[in-house]
Design brief:
about 325 residues, alpha/beta
Amino acid sequence: MLGIPHIGLILALASGAAHAAIFEAVYDYEGPHAPRYVAARTASDARPQVALVLGSGGRRGFAHAGVLRALESGGIRPDLIVGVSIGSVIGALYAGGMSAAEVEKLALELELSTFRDLSWLHWGQVRGQKLQNFVNERVHDKPLESLGVRFAVVATRQSDGALQIFNSGDTGAAVRASSAVPGQFYAVRIAGVTYIDGDVASPVPVRAARTLGAVVVIAVDISARIDNVPQGVPEDWLRTDRERRKRIDAETAFADVTIHPDIGYFAGTSGNYRARVIAAAADATRAALPRIRSAIAAKRPSVSLPPATAASPPTSPAPPAAR
């Protein structure tokens, strides 16, 4: 059963005297279709041959459409897709049956206002219901476990920063939780636990794919390249970039192939920006095809790792600076 937006009222003691009302913007989702993690029941279920991991990155996520186009044209079709934040949005569309060409067309034409259901009660934060509806409409209301390609979404448990995998239940609600950027989107409470943007725990969740049994992992990192930063970028942005890079490198060390297209430092929404980053990502993916084919041919066994659902809190819980 779908939940309804819920506003939790927290009374805090200010200066040991007066009480101040602090409102936390949270969306509640409970019931039999609530997103959850379901462990594989058989060894064959736990061994998808090829996993595609689509990383976070906000507006930089248009690049994922170029990756899908090049992989599809190169005859590479993943058995498992793991998405986080914007990667979960793109991953859901593709796993739900859209072709790479259809995903690219949508990425070029989409009006971002489609997702903008602002709450003026909570300082202009996005509630996320439009995003949830958008995803569910395009996957024809199929739950995560019933999509055409095996699909998992990664979110962050707000209480301790631990990574959570969702691979069963309402697809749109899982994507909504994975995309809940702190301070910009409502957090999402599922079965009594509050989740925020998966980027906080893992911007490129390779270890989640390994936990799900992937033999070969193709990771897509759409973050800015910190070795080629334009002049004038604020130092706090660079500090966040460096901290985020450490978290990404800790994950991609366990990938067979990592695709990191150079799509520039600043993100945008213009038609020219979208076409440019899609083309750059497609080029980078085509260049990686020989390595991908070699990794698949070798059928490298999965790496022994601790369960992703019990991951340690990230070193830097702050979301990346918006740009």
